[in-house]
Amino acid sequence: MNKPESNPQLKHGRVISPPSRSAIATDEGLILDWHANAMEGGKNFPSLTAGPFPIPYESDVASLVPPADGYILSGGQTDERDCVNFTDEEMSKKLNRPFTWPLLNVEPGQAFHVRWVYTMPHVTRGFSWFITKDGWDPEKRISRAQLEPKSFYDDFYTQVPFYEYTDELKAKVEHEVKLPMGKQGHHVIVLLWVVADTGNAFYQAFDVNFK
């Protein structure tokens, strides 16, 4: 029997630019590439419940249970992938040395460009972007209470039902978003790749510094 690390069924996709928490955790030797490709959990976020994806996309495969608070950045995964949820203090203890999540310098309102690599490019509904609230506490794990209650941008394909448009609903290798105005200092951005033909999304997280 193969070890989980070599299980090809768990490979789907990850952001390769700019560096996400998954990429940093991989560089630190805490997870493998397949872990970074499988930060996978229910797509109805920020809802806590499974069930139909919101109108007008209710014909998509229903969502599985979305990630619990404290495990959002790993898509709810609690194995080695949990490290992407760690605070600086937790990471420092894990690595047995001082650690802070590296910050990407950004400006309010700028275009934030990402590039993905896919090992299993599912039929895609789109991408959803969340960000931490002003005054969030970086000494605590990311929870719904730490995030703005709604996504600041949704980039969804509009074709429904998905099974009639599978050739068109492609996962984007490159795309970008305009970052919110009015943010200052350290924030965490959570990006969901929302899949139409499964109950999951893939979660990626970025630590940014608004200058």
3D structure, described in words:
The protein has 211 residues and is mainly β. The chain has helices at 21-27, 33-37, 88-95; strands spanning 13-17, 40-42, 104-106, 111-118, 124-131, 153-156, 174-178, 185-195, 200-210. A hairpin with a 4-residue loop joins strand 8 (185-195) and strand 9. It holds the Pfam family LPMO_10. It comes from Pseudomonas viciae.
Secondary structure blueprint with pairings:
Elements (H helix, E strand, L loop, with lengths): L12 E5 L3 H7 L5 H5 L2 E3 L45 H8 L8 E3 L4 E8 L5 E8 L21 E4 L17 E5 L6 E11 L4 E11 L1
Parallel strand pairs: 3-9
Antiparallel strand pairs: 1-4, 2-9, 4-7, 5-6, 5-8, 8-9
Radius of gyration over C-alpha positions, nearest whole angstrom: 16 Å
Please, how many helices?
A: 3
Shape: globular
Structural class: mainly beta
Question: Could you please say which CATH topology applies here?
Answer: Coagulation Factor XIII, Chain A, domain 1
Order of helices and strands: EHHEHEEEEEEE
Q: Round the mean pLDDT to the nearest integer and report it.
A: 94
How many domains is the backbone divided into? 1
> Strand content of the residues, in percent?
25-35%
- Annotated CATH homologous superfamily: chitin-binding protein cbp21
Distance between the termini: 50 Å
Number of strands: 9
CATH class: Mainly Beta
Keywords: Monooxygenase, Oxidoreductase, Signal
Organism: Pseudomonas viciae
GO molecular function: monooxygenase activity
InterPro entries: Cellulose/chitin-bd_N, GlcNAc_Chitin_IntDeg, Ig_E-set
